[in-house]
Each structure stands twice: as structure tokens, then as C-alpha cells.
Amino acid sequence: MKTAPVQGIRPTLQAGVLATALLLGGCGGGSPTPVVNRPPTFSSPATASVSENTANAFYTASAIDPEGGAVTYTISGGADAAAFTLSGGQLAFATAPNFDLPGDADANNVYLVQLRASDGVGTSTIDLQITVTNSKEGIAVRRIATGFVDPVAISAIPGDTKLFVAERGGRIFLLDPATGVKTLFQTLATTTTGDRGIRAIVTQPDYAATGRYFVLASGSTGSVQLYTCMRGGIFGSPICDSSVFGAPHAETNNYGGFLGYGPDGKLYAGTGDGGGSRDPGGTAQQDDSHLGKVLRIDLNPDPYAGAGPRPYLFTEIAKGLHNPRGVTFLNGQLLLGDRGETTREEIDLVPLTAGGNLGWPSKEGTVVIAAPVPAGAIDPVIEYPHVTGGGVVAGYVYRGQVTSLQNQYVFADQSGVIFSLPASRITAGPTVGSSAFERRTADFAPDAGTLTAPVAFGEDNNGDLYIVDAGGEIFRVTRE
User: Fold this and answer.
1) N or C: which end of the chain has fewer CB within 10 A?
2) b/e code 80-101 from CB counts within 10 Å (16+ = b)
């Protein structure tokens, strides 16, 4: 007579159980007591920690089978199950994790996965929590100077290791980054109501020979002035005049601006709109105003032709800017930051030849806020949501000595966040959103002081990157 298998008993044990039952029955021992299989029990911990960029297995699943049988392991669930692979109980990330660009469901660098252990009949599970920790990836941020009052701009000096650092209130210093010693170079008369004051400074490429540099600031009446300055004026003192241009600016906000020399050797200037909310004067779209524009500035080959001397000529490269902060050049194009008012922060890529319209005040980033939108308005290449108290600070494509930052576009928000994005992602057409760029704030934690309100980036003649903090400190990015 055939005997049916006892439910819940592994096939490998059934023969022994049957023999025992028959023996007990033959001895008059009554009905046999079935042996119930007990599932494996996990002995490995329910939490783990792993450094970002780890490509190998970092966790070994372990479970004990009460009957001494073999145990197999599988991934059975969890919000982040797809992020992992499991082989013979060895757990690894399918793609090495990135602390600065989290891949977990909550984007908080805590990954959740459930593992299952089986002995062929019974199973048990463990809910595993894996924390990814930061690696600074060879980045060191050193504080090199303190004691500035509301610094707003920094500029390399061609042919010199020193840097210009400008305070909004009008003082311009020479800073030696090797020693941290700062020397007052010049005080420019300006006003500081609202956003007024110095906004940008840049040195002419042949500064070593000519001593010429330019300063973008507000004049005594609040107008936006582009000053041309000389290292040695009367009696050897630096001197500036506002012969480049002046533009009336009635409101006290949106005095953002930038200055930079392009790969063509030309000077480019960016200005904020006329102020107020949503540019009530419409100056950003008016071709007869220098406000809300990107301008190329050239020496006039015939400055005395016309009603009065005109030492410089202006070409409008782009219009529709709101409150620009910072500029660099990428593949022969302007890469500039433009602050939002309530909705978006943006980085724009502007051709030096074709130019374009960035859409303000009809658009803020890709968001239409006041139709109609100007024909052919250019969408930004990067945008992210506006944060109260923040504002985009455009940076540079890194070319210094930190390997992990090579060819990364490094920029920031004044709320204290440092971002990076591969320069290869920055192309005309598609707009890259915040989910694509890395938050490098932890990597950029300084060795001293606090980097909590970045307001400007600078780059020296060796490609080293500098960050100006509103609290009065200057930092240099270098290797660990």
C-alpha cells in the first residue's frame, strides 16, 4: 500500500519519517507524530552602510536552517529592489551608487530592499536598509581669506598670481591666495541701496601691459555704469571713468550683472532689467535700452565720428534677461546664470554670433508667466525651482587638478547648494532639470569657516576654482 507524503515535510526527510511511523505502528505505539519543517532564520544584520562609488558586493546574506539544509537567497521586494543584484547571497548595486545624485525612491541615500531565504520548502524574509555615505572624491575646499564685507566678485589678473576681490560697497582688493593677505587697491564711489553697488569686475587680457580692467556698478544716481579703469592713473593711483556706458535704472533691485572676455578676445557684459516686479518698464525687451541685455563691447575705430566722442561700440547679443549672475564660455558660446523672481532659476547658452531672446518677462525658465512669448525665445539649458532666499550663481567648467571634477560644470544656488553637471550634457535645445545634476554640497564642505551663501565663482590662470561667500570668506577648490 502506498503512503501519501506528509504535508510540510521536505522530500529528503519523508523516507525517514515514513520508516519511523511504520516502526512505531509495528510496536503498537499509536499514530505517528509528523515532523514539521522550520524555515531558515536570517542571522545577517538588517542594516548596512556603503560608500558611494562602490562597485563590488558589500553585504553577505546569511540564514540558518534548523534542519541543516542548504539555503538559497533571492531579492523578493522593497522600494529599491531594482537597484541591486544578488549572487550566492552576495548583494551589490547594479550600478555603483552616487551620493550626490541619489537613485533610491526617496532620494535620501537610504535604499530599501527585501531578501528571501529558502530551504526548498519554507521561506523567510528580511527588510534590509542600506545607507550610502559620501566620498569627497578627492575634493578639498580650503578657506584662503576672511574679513571681506559683502564681497560680490572675484577676477584673475593675467600675468599675476593675485586676484581682484570686489565688495559691493565699492572697495576693490588685491588678494594673494597663497598667503591670504589682502591689500586695498581702490575704492570706487557707488551707492548700495537695495541691490546697488559693484556687481562685476574683469581684467583685460593684456592687463600686464595696459593695466586696464572694467567694473560694472551702480553710479551715484543708481544708474548702471560700466567703468573702464586703469591700474595707474594720476600720481600712480588706480582711476576709473564711466565712458563705456550708463543706463538709467529707477528701481533698487535686479542690479545683477556679469563681465567676461570671450574666446574671440571681446568683452561681454550682462545687465539686469530695470527692476521692480516682472520688469514693469519693459526694458529687457527694448532694443534701445542696455538693461536686461548681453552686450559685446568693442573699441570704436573712429571714436570722434558723430556728435560726440564714442570710444566704444555695442552689439546686442541677447535680450530678455532678468537678473544675471556669473558667466563663462563653453564651445564658443556664453553660458550665463539668470536669477528667477518666483518660479525658476536658469542657466542659458547664448551663441556669440546669432544671439537670441531669453524671453523675460514673458518667460521664467521654461515657464510662461505672461503671454505672449516673444517669437523664437530660447529655453534655458539648465533650470531648477526657485527657492526663497536663494538664486542661481553661474560657475565654470572645471579645468583644475581634481580628477573627479574634470569637465564638470560647477555652479551654485545662494541658498548654499553646490551643483555639478557634465559639460557634455549642456547643449542647445534640451533643458536639463534638477533631477540630472549632482548636489556636491557635502563634497565642498570647507576645512574652515562656512560656505553657506555662495555669491560668485572665480577661476585663476591655472584653472583653480574659487568661491566667494556672502559672509566675507574666500575658498579655493583643490585636491585632497
Assistant:
1) N
2) beebbebeebebbbeeebebbb
Among left, alpha and beta (phi > 0; psi -120 to 50; other), residue 236 is: left
Distance, CA of 338 to CA of 344 (rounded, Å): 9
| Number of neighbours of residue 223 by Cβ within 10 angstroms | 19
Write out the three cell numbers for 368: 510662461
**Which strands sit side by side in the sheet containing 474-479, from one edge to the other?**
139-145, 474-479, 465-469, 454-459
Q: Are 261 and 201 in contact (CB under 8 A)?
A: no
* Per-residue 3-state assignment (H helix, E strand, C coil) for 380-397: CCEEEECCCCCCEEEEEE
Q: Quick one: cell of 227? A: 567703468
Phi, psi of 164 (to 5 degrees): -85, 135
pLDDT (tens digit per residue) in 55-109: 999 999 999 999 999 999 999 999 999 999 999 999 999 999 999 999 999 999 9
228's enclosing H/E stretch is: strand 224-230
